[in-house]
Amino acid sequence: MATASLVLIAALRRTAGRLGRGAAYQWGHMGSCNCGNLAQELTQYTAPEIHRNAITCGRGDWNEQLNDYCPSTGLQMDSLIFEMLTHGVTLDDLRHLERLSDPHILNRLPGGHRHLRHNSREDLVLYITTWADLLEEEWTARLEFGDIRKAIESPPENTIAPVKAGCPAAF
Q1: Alpha-carbon distance 33 to 98, whole Å?
Q2: Dmax of the chain from CA atoms?
Q3: Using an 8 Å Cβ cutoff, are 65 and 59 in contact?
Q4: Distance CA 144, CA 133 (A)
Q5: What distance in Å separates the CA atoms of residue 79 and residue 85, rounded to the nearest whole number?
Q6: Which of 88, 158, 162, 169 qualifies as a cystine partner to 3, CB 3.0-4.6 A?
Q7: pLDDT tens digits, residue range 36-46?
Q8: Are 33 and 121 in contact (CB under 8 A)?
Q9: What is the pLDDT at residue 149?
């Protein structure tokens, strides 16, 4: 599963929000499908640019692009995938995203595990939102609150000198 980060969580939430508000969605279009919509948020590429890069490299759909991915080819599509990977997603995450099939995410769906239609805007929004929730929980759990908790439980001894009667407070 992806490495939880604020950048990735925010990109997932923006993607779900855009799709929920009616952003272009077409499962057969490399720039407007499941992976294509997330790619728009994680990279500087537009949907037409993503689609053109994928068609130019001639490897087929996202699954085939991911299977043939090689960071050293110099192909624009490989550069785009590499950029997505630098934000914490894995090749498997992207494969699952295109098919809405990650068992960890499906198990966390509101109402329990169920099959999602990979080419449904509503199912994609639900999947991405659930994925963002999962990553946010993981990210929050990793935060180090030890020092804060320690300070609350054991405040330091009186570190501010008491103000003597008749002296103006120097605050």
Answers
A1: 8
A2: 84
A3: yes
A4: 19
A5: 10
A6: 88
A7: 999 999 998 99
A8: no
A9: 52
Q: For the chain, give me the number of helices (H) and strands (E)?
A: 9, 0
Residue linked to tokens 């300070």: 151
Q: What is the reported pLDDT for 15?
A: 98
Which H or E element spans position 48?
A: helix 47-57
For 72-111, give the secondary structure using H, E and C.
CCCCHHHHHHHHHHCCCCCHHHHHHHHHCCCHHHHHCCCC
* Single-letter code of the amino acid located at 71: P
Sign of CA dihedral 11, 135, 90, 5: positive
Domain boundaries, the chain: 6-153
User: Dihedral of CA 38/44/48/52: which sign?
Assistant: negative
